Hints:
This protein is an alpha+beta fold and about 80 residues long. Helices cover about 35% and strands about 40% of the residues. Strand 1 (about 5-10) and strand 2 (about 10-20) form a beta hairpin.
Amino acid sequence: xxxxxxxxxxxxxxxxxxxxxxxxxxxxxxxxxxxxxxxxxxxxxxxxxxxxxxxxxxxxxxxxxxxxxxxxxxxxxx
Length: 78
């Protein structure tokens, strides 16, 4: 995935972009993208990795894993 894809997590829209073994997670604010975190794809649960490889961004396992990243970012104050 070289371009960003919009997904919904917890009722909010986020952008994801795969760059090799890294998944960038961000938000679009005022027309600009703010990247919140980079996730090492290898750290995701195997079913989430498989869904990502298939491009199934609505997969529950993948969404749960990414929602955890969003919540961790919010807890850090990002």
